[in-house]
Structure formats: C-alpha cells, structure tokens
C-alpha cells in the first residue's frame, strides 16, 4: 500500500515538473518584452536629454533629475550651446545638493547666449550694472534733497523770529532804568569848615565855597 502511494506521488511530481518546464519558456518570452538589456524593468520615462539624444534613459542618468521630458526646450538650448558631454561633466563636478541650481544656471546662460551670441551673459551683467549705477545716483540725489530740507527747517526758525521783530508784530519790553549811585558821605572836617548848606536846593547835595 505504501509503495503504491509513493509511486503515485512520484508520478504526480514528474507531471507537475513537466508542466512547469513547458510553461517556463513562454513566461521568459513574455518577460523579455518587459525587461531591458540589463534585466531591469524599463519603467523610467526618458528625460528630455535622452529623448533628444535618442538613447535609453537609464536609472542613473545624470540628466533625468534636472531636465524634465515636459520641457524639452531647456535641454535643447543647453545641448546647442555647451554640448551634452560638457553639461554632464559640469553637473558631476558640482555637489549633489547644488546640481539643480547649476542646471538652472546652465539653462539661463544658454538662453542668453542664443539671444545675444556676441556678449552673452556679459551683456546682461553690464546692463544690470548700469541700472545699479543709475539707481545709486538717484538715491544719492534724494538723500541730498532730504538733507537740504532738514537744514532749511533749522535755519528758518531764527530767521522767522527776526522777521517778526522787525515788522513790529512782537514788542519787547524796555529794561528798567539803572538807578544812580548814592553820593559819597562827607567827612566831618570838610563839612564843618567849608560846606555851606543851601536849604532851598535839593536836599542831600553839598556845595563847597
């Protein structure tokens, strides 16, 4: 009884193995359509760089994080001015935290160079420097006007007082008269011998004869 069961189990196992071996090539063929050359699933949408260069966009593509397939004109400008290999080298030389800013800077420089093939970014920088100089001159002029009005206000205060006094609108009270100093007291000998008192004159005055 046990031998028959073992034989039946072996036959069932062989049958399952044959069925799995027969289905394996079909499964591999269907998977090859989903697998890339390296055996990885090609689920990555090609970036603007790989789409323009007509190549497969790998998972470690240096352009895919910074050049979206929805904005192909950005990489087209960069590729036309700098070249794809130079852009890749420049991005690899920059720290990863600054690569997005570097890519945006390359796009800006490429667009400016295409608009102005002679001066490029230097033309834009010169124009901005001239604007800064003009605005600085205007700022200095405004500051000078502010200082002039401040000094004018301080100088108009005493001038207004002098104008009011000269017009008579404001009167100034005259100071009280200074009293005359009292006469010196006469000596006893001079008063007894030579002094003559005149009662009809103002008292307090002594006339000598």
UniProtKB/TrEMBL annotation:
Residues 45-146 form the LOB domain. It comes from the Eukaryota. Belongs to the LOB domain-containing protein family. Pfam families: LOB. This is LOB domain-containing protein 15.
């Amino acid at each position: 009884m046990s031998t028959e069961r073992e034989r039946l189990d072996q036959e069932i196992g062989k049958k399952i193995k044959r069925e799995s071996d027969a289905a394996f090539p079909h499964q591999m063929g269907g998977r090859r359509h989903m697998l890339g050359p390296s055996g990885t699933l090609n689920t990555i949408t090609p970036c603007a760089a790989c789409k323009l260069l007509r190549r497969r966009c790998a998972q470690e593509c240096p352009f895919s994080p910074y050049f979206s397939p929805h904005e192909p004109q950005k990489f087209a400008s960069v590729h036309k001015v700098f070249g794809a290999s130079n852009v890749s080298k420049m991005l690899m030389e920059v720290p990863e935290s600054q690569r997005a800013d570097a890519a945006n800077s390359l796009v800006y420089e490429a667009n400016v160079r295409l608009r102005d093939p002679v001066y490029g970014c230097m033309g834009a920088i010169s124009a901005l420097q001239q604007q800064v100089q003009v605005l600085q001159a205007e700022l200095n002029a405004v500051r000078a006007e502010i200082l002039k009005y401040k000094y004018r206000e301080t100088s108009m205060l005493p001038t207004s007082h002098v104008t009011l006094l000269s017009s008579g609108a404001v009167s100034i009270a005259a100071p009280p008269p200074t009293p005359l100093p009292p006469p010196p007291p006469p000596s006893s000998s001079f008063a007894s011998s030579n002094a003559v008192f005149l009662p009809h004159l103002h008292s307090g005055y002594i006339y000598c004869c």
